[in-house]
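Hi all, posting the design record for the shared folder.

TITLE: backbone redesign
STEP: 1 of 1
STRUCTURE INPUT:
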């Protein structure tokens, strides 16, 4: 049945296209004037003061981690380690013996002590309950004594490739685990609160309520830093038939066999779950001092981070491309970005399509690499929300010389790069309008690298990163939203306050419980 969705305007990154969208069942038929399209419609949704936008796309998202943050123990917003201990102690008292307490979103940059906790801090709070606290970036975690014991980690345990076990002066682990060292502990912990398929469906419905109709979903296979939450691909496959939005899955695999088996599981699942490719890590995070840098961090003169790429990773990239998928490689530091671009140049020379290659984050770049990204034709998947979280320490960490080339959105745009926006949620809030606002005003950091409002909207409607049809194109799925203001005509602060009036996926309106918060610190 033909249905008309009309409002005050239809706005895309390319401009205003009229005031109505005609859909037939689940596809867009035409975009234009209500006066011209209305005669063909059998029904109408009318939003006189609203603005129709394409459904918003988040290119880089961790749906199981997001669900865990909504339903589990979160340490975002705590003011000091005493409050952390109170929160952890109360949570530990509620769980059954033998289960592990997994807490997320700890931020050492905002607590009064300005440091990571140690195993001793956690032991005071949770005693014999195995406990793992993840820093909000996901690249550093802290284990208590019981968790270290469960994993068999002691002073004799060697650092794994690509990771570090912090130690005291006597060589005894402090509990702080960086990068792949987290992987030594997490698989041995049975989280007391694991996201269920129904939990994930409810969380994805909350995303529809803030305008997201598709996400690039980064999923693990029951190993890695989030192994305590189980096999994420299995959880999403079980939820597939009920998903309200589209999830394009990038699998964090460690062998080609695992990658292909995950692809088969996803392809057998529901229509809104699609295998998209492989996710690989080249380095860590700025916040955890684990990003791979050419020169040391400005606030840690002896530290240049960790480069994690291995020959096995490059084999995984080839396997994904051969199977028709994409390659998404996480790169934060300038050394990591250069290394990934070098590999991508080789892959392109061997015949790979550049648009199937994604550079995740592209945070700190050498000036030459900014130009190279544009020339190569790959996708730069960027997260403007990082600027909001890092505003108080970013220059201190990278130094004044590197700051102009940290999240250089405008320079990348001028170089001709294909940019796609994401949140890396639960590292950051999933709100795409907050992401657009930060793409424009950059929280005051090197404001000349901000995008104009239309380009900021384009970040979150760009199709290439998820291999989706162009937004609101005739014949494309009828994924669109209605909001209470035009994002290209308001200030960044007004943009942050945008309210979504309705979300349509495949032409059907998604019912959302708007009394439930979509984000918790």
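Okay, here is what came back for every position:
SEQUENCE:
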């Amino acid at each position: 049945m033909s249905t008309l969705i009309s409002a005050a305007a239809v706005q895309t990154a390319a401009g205003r296209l009229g005031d109505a969208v005609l859909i037939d069942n689940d596809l867009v038929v035409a975009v234009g004037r209500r006066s011209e399209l209305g005669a063909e419609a059998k029904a109408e949704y009318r939003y006189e003061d609203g603005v129709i936008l394409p459904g918003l796309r988040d290119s880089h998202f961790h749906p199981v981690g997001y669900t865990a943050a909504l339903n589990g123990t979160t340490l975002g917003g705590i003011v000091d380690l005493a409050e952390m201990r109170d929160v952890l102690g109360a949570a530990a008292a509620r769980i059954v013996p033998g289960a592990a307490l997994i807490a997320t979103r700890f931020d050492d940059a905002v607590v009064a002590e300005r440091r990571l906790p140690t195993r001793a801090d956690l032991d005071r709070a949770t005693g014999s309950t195995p406990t793992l606290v993840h820093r909000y970036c996901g690249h550093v975690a802290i284990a208590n004594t019981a968790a270290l014991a469960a994993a068999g980690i002691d002073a004799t345990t060697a650092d794994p490739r690509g990771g570090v076990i912090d130690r005291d002066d006597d060589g005894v682990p402090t509990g702080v685990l960086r990068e792949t060292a987290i992987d030594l502990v997490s698989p041995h912990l049975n989280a007391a609160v694991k996201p269920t398929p129904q939990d994930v469906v409810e969380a994805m419905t909350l995303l529809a309520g803030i305008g997201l109709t598709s996400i690039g979903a980064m999923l693990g296979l029951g190993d890695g830093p989030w192994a305590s939450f189980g096999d994420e691909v299995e959880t999403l496959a079980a939820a597939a038939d009920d998903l309200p939005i589209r999830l394009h899955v990038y699998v964090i695999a460690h062998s080609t066999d695992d990658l292909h088996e995950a692809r088969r599981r996803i392809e057998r699942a529901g229509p809104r779950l699609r295998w998209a490719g492989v996710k690989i890590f080249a380095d860590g995070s700025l916040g955890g001092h684990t990003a791979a840098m050419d020169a040391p961090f400005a606030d840690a003169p002896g530290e240049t981070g960790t480069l994690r790429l291995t020959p096995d990773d490059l084999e995984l990239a080839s396997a994904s491309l051969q199977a028709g998928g994409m390659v998404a490689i996480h790169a934060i530091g300038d050394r990591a970005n250069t290394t990934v671009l070098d590999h991508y140049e080789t892959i392109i020379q061997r015949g790979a399509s550049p648009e199937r290659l994604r550079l995740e984050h592209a945070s700190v770049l050498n000036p030459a690499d900014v130009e190279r990204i544009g020339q190569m034709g790959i996708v730069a998947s960027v997260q403007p929300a990082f600027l909001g979280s890092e505003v108080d320490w970013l220059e201190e960490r990278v130094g004044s010389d590197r700051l102009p080339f940290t999240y250089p959105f405008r320079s990348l745009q001028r170089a001709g790069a294909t940019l796609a926006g994401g949140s890396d949620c639960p590292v950051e809030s999933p709100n795409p309008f907050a992401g657009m606002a930060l793409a424009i005003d950059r929280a005051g950091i090197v404001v000349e690298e901000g995008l104009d409002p239309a380009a900021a909207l384009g970040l979150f409607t760009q199709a290439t990163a998820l291999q989706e049809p162009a937004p609101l194109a005739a014949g494309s799925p009828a994924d669109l939203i209605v909001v209470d203001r035009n994002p290209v005509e308001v200030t960044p602060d007004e943009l942050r306050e945008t309210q979504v009036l309705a979300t349509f996926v495949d032409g059907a309106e998604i019912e959302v419980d708007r009394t439930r918060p979509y984000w918790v610190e």
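COMMENT: DSSP finds 17 helices and 21 strands in the chain.
Let me know if anyone wants the other runs.
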